[in-house]
Amino acid sequence: MYAYAVVRASDAVAGALETVTGVADGPVRAVRHRELMVLAGPVPATDHDEQGLAEHLEDLDWLERTARAHQRVIGAAAAVAPSVLPLRLATVFHDEEGVRTMLGARHEQLLAALDRLDGRTEWGVKVHALGTGRPPGAAAAPREDTPRAAASGRDYLRRRAAERHAAREGARHEDDVARGIHTTLTALAQETRLHPPQNPRLSGQAGRNVLNAAYLVRREDGPRFTSAVARLAERAPRDGMRVDLTGPWAPYSFAGTDASPESP
Question: Looking at the record, which segments are called Disordered (predicted)?
């Protein structure tokens, strides 16, 4: 069985899943144990045993389809549940009994995590430095009207040193701006998580990713948080930066517990 998330036992959540399809377009149902339930559904065993998963995790198309289905189920639950504890992508159990065993073994830990996430959502903020800004007071690089061959070796070395210095100062300024953005948003969030910068060749986004952060925000504070991001995004181009906001999401980055089975 493919497991998507843990929630408190609720008929409303179970009902919301009746029209939702999960991985491999399969049905989703609630597997209950005491006050908790796992949102889960059957999947082909050959695709989700140890060998099948190892092969699929190298298949970007499969990963994208699975991630979309995973998010679809969690999003449906988050729309009606006060808190959702997302499980890792491709968390698989042998059967319902394995799911219930996990719920029994980690009952208190899972309840505590749900309490901590109650009424909170995750927002993602990425900041990219586009290389078009300069530190305050920095002069633009002088234009070179004479051919490079005409410059002396000493002039060339001086120019290259100045370019390297300007690049270092520019990168330092970009990092300072990103830290300032993160400090501002941290004050509006319950918790934060810093993720590794994204590789532009993989993300398809232009510029250097100088901030890739997740913020856990109370639902009632969502408008204040998004307004703050909008103001920061409006100012960012002056520093050669771009600010992107995603969410609200279920709190993937703040689950804080591994509810996967010991062995699939």
Answer: 130-154, 241-264
Q: Are residues 148 and 67 in the same domain?
A: no
Distance CA 6, CA 74 (A): 9
How many Å separate Cα 89 from the centre of its chain? 13
Cα distance between residue 240 and residue 234, in whole Å: 11
More confident residue, 50 or 172: 172
Residue ending a domain, choose from 118, 143, 163: 118
Q: What is the pTM of this model?
A: 0.77
Closest to 254 (Cα-Cα) out of 126, 128, 115: 115
Percent of residues, the chain, with pLDDT higher than 70: 78
Evaluate whether residue 11 is within a structural domain.
Answer: yes
Query: Is residue 72 within 8 Å of residue 26, measured between CB atoms?
Result: no
Same domain, 165 and 130: yes
* Mean pLDDT for the stretch of residues 182-188: 97
How many independent structural domains does the chain possess? 2
CA nearest neighbour of 124 among 192, 204, 200, 178: 192
The three-point CA angle 122-127-129 to 5° equals 170
Domain assignment present for residue 175? The answer is yes
Q: How far apart are CA 104 and CA 110, in angstroms?
A: 10
For residues 229 and 220, what is the distance between their CA atoms, to the nearest angstrom?
16
* Domain carrying residue 101: 2-118
For residues 38 and 107, what is the distance between their CA atoms, to the nearest angstrom? 12
Quick one: pLDDT at residue 206?
Answer: 76
160's CB contacts (< 8 A; 6+ apart) are: none
